[in-house]
Amino acid sequence: MAVNSSYQKEKPENKAGFPIPVRSYKMILIGFAIVLLGFVLMMGSGNADPDKFNYDIFSFRRITLAPIVVLGGFGFIFWAIMRKPKNEV
Hints:
mainly alpha
């Protein structure tokens, strides 16, 4: 039984390659480094004497700066995933 070519649908050509360009993967890694930097900023030394309270846990670096850096890193990762690459010929 012969198949009539008029009944066959043309399949769109698949583009070879990754769904996310290589440059975006590099930017995602940079974003993870920014997030990691934010968590490092949150770290601090412990208190040697457990009977004394260490007020350094309320420093600007730990309470304000580090969470902003972490959120900025996650925003950068989101942008790197969602951005459209320029068509390079």
